Amino acid sequence: MSAVSSDLRLGDDSGYEGDGPLLELDAVSKHFAQESGLFAGLQFEPDQFPPISMDPGSVQAVDDVSLEIQPGETLGLVGESGCGKSTLGRTILRLLEPTEGDIYFKGRNLADLGGEELRQMRSDMQMIFQDPQSSLDPRMKVGQIIEEPMRAHDMLDDEGREARAKELLEKVGLDPRHYNRHPHAFSGGQRQRINLARALSVDPDFVVCDEPVSALDVSIQAQVMNTMDELQEEFGLTYLFIAHDLSVIRYVSDRVAVMYLGHIVEVAEKEELFENPQHPYTKALLESIPVPDPRESGVRGVLEGEVPSPQDPPSGCRFRTRCPRLIAPEAYDLTDEEWAHTRAFMRAVKRRTFEAMPADEIRREFFGGRPPGGEAGEIVAEAIDRIATDRDDAAVDEDDWDEASSLLLESFAERSICARERPAYQLESTLGSGEHFAACHLHR
Amino acid sequence: MSSEPLLRVENLKTQFFTEAGTVRAVDGISFEVREGEIVGLVGESGAGKSVASMSLLRLVEDPGEIVAGEITYKGETIFGLEEGPNGELRERDDVLSNEEIRTRIRGNEIAVIFQDPMESLNPVFTVGGQLREFIELNRGLGEDEAKAEAIDMLREVGIPDPEQRYEEYPHQFSGGMRQRVLIAMALACEPSLIIADEPTTALDVTVEGQILDLVDELQAKYGTSFIWVTHDLGVVAEICDRVNVMYLGEIVEQAAVDDLFYDTKHPYTDALLDSMPRPDRTVDDLEPIEGVMPEAIDPPSGCRFHPRCPHAREVCKRVHPEPKIVAGDGEPHRAACVKHDAFDVGYDESPPLEDRGPTPSGEDSADTDSESGLAPNPTADDGGERRE
Predict the structure, then answer these.
(1) Judging by DSSP bridges, how do beta strands B21-33 and B7-18 pair with one another?
(2) Looking at this predicted complex, what is its ipTM?
(3) Which of A364, B197, B248, B253 registers the highest number of CB atoms within 10 A of its CB?
(4) Nearest residue in chain A measured CA to CA from B374
């Protein structure tokens, strides 16, 4: 870090000289109250007494996340929309108060810091937002925008700030003569550069980049990412790079963390993660992404269904409701094939992706005519009976579907180890020397 | 290949007459769509791909206007001009009237799927109701029949429990599910052509995969042709049969999908491929395209890509290339670049451009007004070179 210290580094004390990670998250959770207001959490339930119940339900946006970020590295954080990656980014900066857990920055627990100390610490941690349009005040000039954080942290005098702003403009690839322009005169890519200059103005060590290039065209994306890369070297920055686009993550990251529904499911060095993914979710993500190569006829649509609600997330492994590798419950003696059939049938019933039909047809369609035997077989037979059109009593209705679905889920899905224990395993990396974390019971 | 294509577009020009001047959003593009194929229309924002696709249905709004060209669909003229007695251009007699376009073509023959499913569905009506109304109006079915058909379509596009979800409102659907509803709506009248305008851009990759699968499946079943408008070359590689690459209102390259990726003929397409990060391999250094796309209001002279083109020579400033066949045994491979022999305008002898000056205008996408006072901006020179 010190080797490249240019005149843009403000003072020497800002660098981090410790040996530990720059940032460490220890079991951080962030839960949001579902509603706010006087009657929040009150539920009206007419069929019980009293007909009102308190349900302080919360959305578990980030749940028990532990991570380390080493000085000078770029950690990519990838996941689908709603998985909690932005919330995590904001919680790290303490723009949101973590519900539980500790965040250590340069070895100091951020929770212990308050008032002035926290404010000081904040100058070392900056953020870049996704939307280059709305993150810049349209009424301020570019110069003011870049100087504002310095003013807030009482850095330099007026002249010094102006000189630094101009220098930063040049560093991020803009013309210093644009100092007096308004943001609207700039294109999306250029605005993102202004954002960069603003974040760097207070000489931070750590920058959270929340989807910084998602709103940009491909050719502009590459320009901005390259600039970020150069700045990282020059300023000795550490990035947490949040994105949903795996190709972007692969380009910018040193290590990658994959997030699903508030949990980190896999962390590994970039090459290891992309070439040797160990979590079924990571695999599915990698398989789904369209490859710009027409000869690469990929599998896609490998994941069924949708992300469950974070209000009531699945127990154990949160991915288990969609996981193509959900582990068979030990209570039953099923062959792999029988389990695959049963699993597919269970999910089809739960999602109701087929119409009620005669029992024989169900057996043929889902079990190739050979449903499993033993205890598991009895449960399957009972479920089939509920939704078969040729059974004795009345036609199949909603309740029958619900019963069949809960019978199957309780007998199979809930008894799987995936539902009972939250997975967390450290594996050996096959590529590179780093650690490889995978939250999947297949590695038990 | 001998048979008449489903849709033929010739020299289409759509312009917007604004106070700042005439924006030549689409400037003389020609392409065709054959039965049962998926044709890609690719480009960055501001390239004119959406305007082009909306022109096909004559859905261009003021101050925009189709000013030239011919659009033929199944032998019928959607748009065409002829010279009147006084030398002025007027619409030909055989052009379909607005009424015919509205009742016969839109929805029934050519349907559209838009990018943002939330904006294409009315939030105060149930999803089923909207789909039913659409079927009733376009196919003249009674209410009950239309409802049954609507439920069938919802099931067809993979919406679980369609009877139940028929009664729900758009906000109760996830993004992927809403996009499925739009696909159901587009398919409901069994059109021969569907224009899909960035239909998966707003979706997560796993959902995008599901939708692409669905499109593949439905296409095999109904034989519908698609025009797939996108900026994502990954999606293009996945599903398109043939591709048109647009830059600043023009088609610069037109080829079968495999040729486009493996035998790229236009420097812009090349540069675009080089600037993309890859999901399937680690790229150490991306080569961004220099500069930004200029405004369509004042396009560069000659080849419109020349200010950013690494192969540009002096001749590129003067000669404006129209796409010509440059390769291809079966499927013609067209490119609009004078470096190919087919053009024969002296590219090889022409001196390289010396003053690789600034880009013509400081802006990339069409989302900002160009400020004439704005000095050219050296944004792009990530290589370190800066203009004084």
Answers:
(1) antiparallel
(2) 0.81
(3) B253
(4) A185
